[in-house]
Design brief:
Number of strands: 7
Radius of gyration: 12 Å
Number of helices: 0
Distance between the termini: 23 Å
Structural class: mainly beta
Strand order of the largest sheet: 1-2-3-4
Largest sheet: 4 strands, antiparallel
Order of helices and strands: EEEEEEE
Length: 73
């Protein structure tokens, strides 16, 4: 895991990795985390993940010079 980003409500955490994937984790009771999604689509390592500050929209950018937008929830 290289970086993380919380959504506005704090119920989801997005992480990025050097394996070209973005993982979305759901926060469960007792501060447990459950993998909700593994997103693939970038052809090179993901540089950064960032949630929109007010709605559940996730942005990811990659060394493949693309930005992906996911409307989540």
């Amino acid at each position: 895991m290289k970086s993380v980003s919380w959504n506005a409500s704090g119920s989801f955490l997005a992480t990025r990795s050097r394996d070209k994937t973005v993982w979305i984790w759901e926060v469960m009771p007792g501060n447990e985390f459950e993998c909700a999604s593994v997103l693939q689509g970038h052809t090179q390592d993901v540089k950064m993940v960032k949630w929109h500050p007010t709605v559940d929209v996730l942005f990811s950018c990659s060394y493949d010079n693309t930005v992906k937008v996911l409307f989540y929830g």
